[in-house]
Amino acid sequence: MNLIDTYIRHEIASLGLEFVPEFKFHPVRKWLLDYAIPSRKIGIEIQGATYTAGKHTRGTGYANDCEKLNAAQCLGWRVLWYTTQQLRADPSVVARDIKLLLDKTDIASIVS
């Protein structure tokens, strides 16, 4: 387990939610969400190597990600996307964003 995984697991656990890493969300395709909270249909995707022409930032990889995330949305999933740089800078953003989805709280009151 790397540092980013540790951050995410800690942030989700701090909310008292059960989560599943590498969750297969689609009934036919073999697509996985990096992390999922199945009881709430919340997914978390981490985009690595975004500044080094990694898989997720090149044409085919990006198009595949779009197809996967659109399918998740069509199945009722709400998916949060992060880069590894965002999570290194402020891992608490995961818990904050999940709370926003769950509470439907105005973002201004949380960010300020």
Could you give a short description of this structure?
About 45% of the residues lie in helices and about 20% in strands. The protein is α+β, with helices and mostly antiparallel strands.
Please state the overall shape, judged from the principal axes of the Cα atoms.
globular
Sheet with the most strands?
A: 4 strands, mixed
Tally of separate domains: 1
Through-space gap between termini: 33 Å
Main sheet: strand order: 1-2-3-4
How much helix, percentage-wise, in residues? 40-55%
Low-confidence stretches: none
Number of helical segments with 4 or more residues: 5
Kindly provide the name of the CATH class.
Alpha Beta
Q: Summarize model confidence as the mean pLDDT.
A: 84
Strand content: 15-25%
**Total strands:** 4
What fold name stands as the CATH topology?
Endonuclease, Chain A
- CATH architecture classification: 3-Layer(aba) Sandwich
User: Cα-atom Rg, whole angstroms?
Assistant: 14 Å
Order of helices and strands: HEEEHEHHH
Q: Going by CATH, what is the homologous superfamily?
A: VSR Endonuclease
Global structural class: alpha+beta
